[in-house]
Amino acid sequence: MSEINQIMGENFWQLPQGETNIELSTTAEDTKESFDMVYQSRVELSVRIRKNYYLKYCDFTIRTKAKGHGETEIDKLLSGKGSIYLYAWKSEDGENLHAWVLVDINKIRNDLKNTGQARFNSDGTEFKGYDIPWISKMGALVNYHNLPPGIQKHLF
Fold first, then answer.
1. Which residues contact 4 (CB under 8 A, 6 or more apart)?
2. How much of the chain, in percent, has pLDDT values that exceed 90?
3. Among 42, 49, 92, 108, which is disulfide-ready with 19 (CB 3.0 to 4.6 Å)?
4. pLDDT at residue 17 greater than cutoff 70
5. pLDDT per position as a tens digit, 19-38
């Protein structure tokens, strides 16, 4: 969790600030703690961390069919849930995050259903894969870290 906090802290200034609120500080905060206002922001962060093995595909995947045919990740995103997605791959030893992308879902939300490559798992679940360069082309790539060089040359 500390790695996620660090990534988000370093990139907070780049995130869309959809729901923000500025309130006056209390009298005690103003007189004793030296601040006049409190800025509050709500960023709905979705997180997916994959094994290092999947970095070779270097794509962003979203589940489209679950085992019990219940609501899936894509259903939630299409209904307006989530605003930022931290999609990461672990290091080979599984101890840390090796590579990651921050994706502004709002910029690709309306395209998720009709784009991407449908894929099927042997357990009956399904998902779609989206190329990281496509996400960048759509203006939805907020930032990234340590992606393979062959991918990086196609970003921003």
1. 47, 86, 97
2. 73
3. 42
4. no
5. 667 888 899 888 888 889 88
Domain count within the chain: 1
Q: Is residue 5 part of a domain?
A: no
First to last CA, the chain: 28
Average pLDDT over residues 67-81: 93
Task: Flag whether 25 is in a domain.
Answer: no
Residue 59 in any domain: the answer is yes
- The residue written with tokens 């996400």 in the block is 135
The pLDDT of residue 19 is 62
**Backbone angle region of 34, left / alpha / beta, with phi > 0 → left and psi within -120 to 50 → alpha:** left
Is there a domain that residue 97 lies in? yes
Q: Residue 131's domain spans which residues?
A: 44-152
What Cα–Cα distance (Å) separates residue 43 from each residue in 12, 17, 59, 112? Answer: 9, 7, 23, 20
3-state DSSP call for residue 142? strand
Cβ atoms within 10 A of the Cβ of 149, count? 6
